Amino acid sequence: MVKIAQFGSWESPLTAKTVAVAGVAPKWVDVHDGVVWWAESRPTEEGRVALMREGPDGSPAEVLAAPWNVRNRVHEYGGRPWTVLGDTVVFTNWADQRIYAYDGSGDPRPLTPVPAREHGLRYADLSPGAGGTSVLCVRETVTGDRPTDVARDLVEVPLDGTGPRSLGASHHFMSGPRLSPDGTRLAWIGWDHPNMPWDGAELCVAKPGQPHRVLAGGPRESVCQAEWETSDSLLVLTDPDGWWNLFRVGLDGSAVNLARCDEELGGPLWVLGGRWFAPLGSGRYAVLRSDRLAVLDERSGTVTDVDTDLTAWSSDLVAHDGVVVSAAGGPQQEVAVVRLDLGTGVETIVSGQPHDLLDPAYLPVPEHRVFTSDDGRHIPAFVYLPRNPDFAGPPGAAPPLLVHVHGGPTGKVTDVLKRDIAYFTSRGFAVAAVNYGGSAGYGRAFRESLNEQWGVVDVHDCATVATTLAQEGVVDGARLAVRGGSAGGWTAAASMTSASTYACATIMFPILDLTGWTSAGGETHDFESRYIEGLVGTLPEHADRYADRSPSNHVDRLAGPVLLLQGLEDEVCPPEQADRFVASLDGTGLPHAYLTFEGEQHGFRRASTVTAALEAELSFYGQVFGFTPPGVPVLELRS
């Protein structure tokens, strides 16, 4: 029998621990000699990233046992950490950031030197070098004590252990070193401050020892992937017309769009080594149309969606013999490594089934909606309503709403199953995940609608979604909350100090002080140290804007209680900002809580952290909204 209970207080089989241990997210998928390889995070192993491959019987097999952790910290977000050369896998190891080679016997052997300072040399975006006897990659060298004291170059690392050989540097940031089929040229992508790679990035090509030439891209054109097609041409994702489309670019600089469309077939280069397209042969290519798998046919100039229930494919596309392999998921299917035969439509999960398959009756079904701002802009969002077959809310009541703000801010949310959202919807919450102005996936004009408007457009768009749902009676307008991490934490905090929409907020590993989060302020890493110039404005011309929008300067304006969650080893959004914010809150009388987590960097990877954070968040909402969530410890609020 269905029980009637206050929204938010429902009991659910989806516990915080269930959510935490399930975060075995596969990534960095590739295929070598027909065998699928990938890396996967292990929350129950302190967030270790394990290297996996398809075993002889088709089941997943671990290549490297603990403590090997196949991860790197280039740009602090990392990049493709492994490649296979014949019988040898070459990979980066988190503990010392060195490159190792492993042929399946004995212990992995190091190929790069011990750095003079801990993590002082980092390597990412590994790809095969000449003759299969070396790897090409990006090297990051820490040159001083400030977060921005970093230099980068492209290097070749021989398998014989003779050490890296620098190939030079064209830009402050580089990605995607690729050797031409004839071995005579190297291609790569480069960009410089103050641009982020999605603002402007160039495709460079050079012969060894000669100056490079720029074949595509520029200050207002962004190359995000380039692969050699022949020794005389490359296939390139770039956006001269405002949309990432697939081009054929010749060594003479000629460029032909293979299928002109107002669609995003690429994405923001947050981590190094993304693959949004893969050749299928005969002028056909597997591509991602805003994360959905499609086939581009250059003969007809068309992009056609593939018939599959998997709606979100990762930028790990690889194809062989008409078969596409990548990590993918859907609204009720968690992300897994999938092999899809385009000829037969047969899908095979390569990475194995989750250890605890969830009952679909408790999983929310997202509704894709497009809201309209008061100035006529479109705001895409996914709306999740409460779903639990054992409970219903009181007659005439509406559920509380959590507005989920993605990070980036040049990021996006998709409709793939997210256990943390299901954790709340199965307890009687509604959730709206908003692709506010500035999000990726909707073209350059949409991305740039956030330029100089960070803390304004994002706040306004999220509030528009919340208030519209409340006006429609879908949710309880008196019980609205906003939650987010990183840039989403910024928007959550900015919402609470510049609007009266929400009753409370959960602010995770956030940016709170804009002036500190600059190259001069010294409180963020090199990669994003000038990102803010496009999002807010340059200094000192816009110093007042920095001060006016920073939540840290307006604790007195907070619209309600806040919960802050912070990793203590975060180099992107360091704990100093959250520390100062909470210190300003203490003694104000406003209820708040602050939880910090040892061993966590930017984002939470450990099962114990995720469990504690979710239970604290649920208890927090219960205290603010007036219900008692069952089965979780009571979070102590201070004032």
UniProtKB/TrEMBL annotation:
Protein origin, superkingdom: Bacteria
Query: What Pfam families does the entry give?
Result: Peptidase_S9 (PF00326)
Domain spans labelled Peptidase S9 prolyl oligopeptidase catalytic: 420-626
Under the heading InterPro entries, the entry gives: 6-blade_b-propeller_TolB-like (IPR011042), AB_hydrolase_fold (IPR029058), Peptidase_S9_cat (IPR001375), Xaa-Pro_dipeptidyl-ppase/CocE (IPR050585)
Which PANTHER family does the UniProt entry name for this protein?
A: PEPTIDASE S9 PROLYL OLIGOPEPTIDASE, PEPTIDASE S9 PROLYL OLIGOPEPTIDASE CATALYTIC DOMAIN-CONTAINING PROTEIN
Tell me the protein's name. Answer: Prolyl oligopeptidase family serine peptidase
Which species? Actinophytocola glycyrrhizae
